[in-house]
Design a protein that fits this description.
Helices cover about 50% and strands about 15% of the residues. The chain contains four helices and three strands. The chain has helices spanning about 1-20, 40-50, 65-75, 90-105, and strands spanning about 30-35, 55-60, 80-85. α2 (about 40-50) links the parallel β1 (about 30-35) and β2 (about 55-60). The radius of gyration is 16 Å and the shape is globular. The mean pLDDT is about 80.
């Protein structure tokens, strides 16, 4: 019960903070969303929705040949970057990190 009350308190604080600062969640090309599991299901839906709402979206897919991976790749827009990312494989995670780092450098966040 204590954890529930703490979680509820945190959510209420976030709600009122975002409500009083509407620009914080305003989608722009400069705001980057990184999502894994974009082959299907919730990951695909979130990536697709983030892209449609104007966010630059880095979509990690277990397989680039999957239905979700192909659908996201076929959007052919500079704001959607589809990356092979099996989160159990260190090389894939490092590749995803590299792509995001380069995006951030291009947006002048890391300088």
């Amino acid at each position: 019960m204590l954890y529930f009350m703490i979680a509820l308190g945190v959510l209420l604080i976030l709600y009122f903070y975002i409500k009083n600062n509407p620009k914080i969640l305003k989608p722009t090309k400069e705001k980057i969303v990184v999502i894994t599991g974009c082959d299907s299901g919730v990951g695909y839906a979130i990536a697709n929705e983030a892209f449609k709402n104007g966010f630059t979206t880095v979509a990690g897919c277990l397989s680039l040949d999957s239905e979700g991976g192909q659908a996201l790749h076929n959007l052919k827009d500079e704001r959607i970057i589809v990356v092979k990312c099996d989160i159990t494989q260190m090389q894939d995670v490092q590749n995803l990190h590299l792509k995001v780092s380069k995006l951030l450098e291009n947006l002048d966040y890391c300088k």
